[in-house]
Amino acid sequence: MKIAICGCGIGGLATAILARRAGFDVTLFDQFLAPEPVGSGLVIQPVGLRVLEQIGAAQEALSKGAKGYRMMGHEAKNGRTVLDVSYGPVGGANFGLGIHRASLFDALLNVAIADHIEIKKEHRVKSSHTSEQGRFVSFENGTSLGPYDLVVDTTGARSPISSLASKPLPFGAIWGTVNWPENTKLRYDQLQQRYRRASNMVGVLPIGTLPNDDQPKAALFWSLPRTEIDNWRATPIEEWRKSATTLWPELAPFTDQITEHGQMTSAAYTHGSLRKPFGDRIVHIGDAAHRASPQLGQGANMALLDAAALVKCLEAHPVEQALPKYVRARWLHTNTYQAMSWAFTPMYQSGSRVLPLLRDYLLAPMSKVYPVPAILSSLVKGSLINPMRGL
């Protein structure tokens, strides 16, 4: 089977590695002159780490990432704990791996190179079509390649060949990577956040080290309405630093490192899923098939799980049977987490004054009552629902 994989991101690399090892003829297309990651920090949950272990990239990822054993969030004004989710005891087998996207990308790319996977650079996908011979892929450089028995679309949220029309979410964020300060009281084994109602949120995620850099890092993120991102860029950076440290004084050693707007990257989020993420010899996975707020920290994990489930199905069935079986295997897990993200996000990122009260005075106390802590823990681990039903 000849497979074209469009997009050399986390999902694309994982699919290419697993498909090549399954014996398929794989070509991976990348739009850049040299493959490179886009983004800042993310969390690999236990379900995603299992896929990295299968691929052979877990050891390098673990050596570069930071193990997190707890997610903590406090209301900035009164100090009330409104988020407290534990993976388990510190030093135990369960944790969320905070890691910079560049380090995770390198871990996967190194495996792909070792497996001699063909990566065609400077091939930005424009469209895809079928003929009697198979499916073809056309690129912005004017070329068209094929036929392929299957095209896997992993080109992300801006996929030119996915029909997903997702709904823009009202809030986005700005992200930056900073050194972990020596003079901070914050813990390096926790994701920590501060909120003012739901309209202001700032967080610090330990993410380990970057490629060719042994200095421990953190991802610093600040929530704001997507309509205010341009206004933020036009406001002196000193004003933003003052706002952030007023909300959370302990943040000063982190924000002091941000001296210009270019050190922060903006992200606007959308929500939606394709009703049918496959067609004639084509399948969409990851953000090309389903998009959500990063509130539950599942984005990269979803792409890894999609890749593993897809290749399992392709190994066992012809393409026309494998694609619907893949969708059935992933449907409940994907849609459950989409629904959870849709429900929880407005409590942490919105202009509502009612939802934060519900969060602080109802959901937060309930989260400490048995068996809710265990349910929340399995939710963030990605294991609340079997991620590959029937496989």
Features:
11 helices, six-stranded mixed β-sheet, eight-stranded mixed β-sheet, 391 residues, alpha+beta, FAD/NAD(P)-binding domain
Structure characterization notes:
The chain is built from 11 helices and 20 strands. The chain has a single domain (2-166, 270-381), classed as FAD/NAD(P)-binding domain (3-Layer(bba) Sandwich), CATH 3.50.50.60. The chain has 391 residues and is an alpha+beta fold. β15 and β16 (217-225) form a beta hairpin. The chain has helices spanning 10-21, 46-55, 58-64, 101-114, 229-234, 237-247, 252-255, 299-316, 319-348, 354-366, 372-381, and strands at residues 2-6, 25-29, 41-44, 66-68, 70-75, 81-86, 96-100, 118-120, 125-130, 135-139, 144-148, 150-153, 167-179, 190-196, 200-208, 217-225, 264-273, 278-279, 282-284, 290-291. The strands form 4 sheets. It has an 8-stranded mixed beta sheet. Strands 8-2-1-12-19-18 form a 6-stranded mixed beta sheet, covered by helices on one side. It has a 3-stranded antiparallel beta sheet with strand order 3-7-4. The longest helix is centred in the C-terminal third of the chain and has 30 residues, at 319-348. Helix content is 35%, strand content 29%.
